[in-house]
# Entry
Amino acid sequence: MSDFKVHILGCGSAIPTALHYPSSQVVELRGKLFMLDCGEGTQRQFRLQKLNFQRLVAVFISHLHGDHCFGLIGLISTLGLLGRTGDLQLIGPKGLKSYIEPLLKQFCMDLKYKVVIEEINHKEEAIVYEDRSIIIKSFPLAHRMPTLGFTLKEKVATRHLDKAAVDFFQVPRSFYPKLLLGEDYLNEDGELIANTRLTKQGKMAKCYAYMSDTSFNPNALKYLEGVTSLYHEATFMKSEQERAKRTAHSTAQEAAEIARLAGVERLLIGHYSARYYSVDALLNEAKEVFENTIASNEGMVIEL
Ligand SMILES: [Zn+2]
Ligand SMILES: [Zn+2]
# Structure
């Protein structure tokens, strides 16, 4: 299995139901965990999916509707009880501090680790996290309050050494780093060996985008360049189009239309309205527009 995957912890909207938990996902890359939204029930889902709390690096909150953030203080408290000492980054739109800081004062005065809260400007694209393996950006979504979408892109080597070729052309080891940066090799006889003869194309970087909550918004397409898998909310069926518009949500078909326009490989839908007992109809409506659609469900692990 790939080392870049997403675990679905919750994919319902607004209120918990017998079928779905509110929104939360965990993206895993090379052993590190990044949480997207933190609705109620997240901790139990962590346990059920055997995810390691200690590997959680950062939590990204899309917006401050309760179905995306009511699980935060419980999670932060539990991490303390489990003996965490390393910082936890908490990243979200303006208002995140005024929501969580009083709760930290009330319940988490004796934490042995620091919660580093960062409020992001929701009106423009921004890099919100970066390390050797991943780059995470936020971008604006169109909802009833400041709301962030996120893209998570793995970092991969663009070129690999062709071992047989570098041996054949007797390229010294000290030149390998330059080869990986794309330089050609000039040998002792003054012959220039093209980089493409000495290296192979590395694998293409996968990129996952998370868009919840949002109305149908083609303006966001410019942030989806290079995205391979897209999670897009699909709260309603097309029969509820008017309601979707009024509440700044999307229908399954609209989610699929964004996937089609963005040219992604795969669409995941979620954030289902509590009115639907089955997601089959939502999935079918999405598939009419974009065939490679998956209806996310709690417990699913999807390779990115
Ligand atoms: Zn929501
Ligand atoms: Zn919302």
User: Anything to note?
Assistant: DSSP finds ten helices and 18 strands in the chain. The mean pLDDT is 96. Residues 13, 23, 65, 67-68, 213, 271 surround zinc ion (ligand 1) (CB under 6 Å).
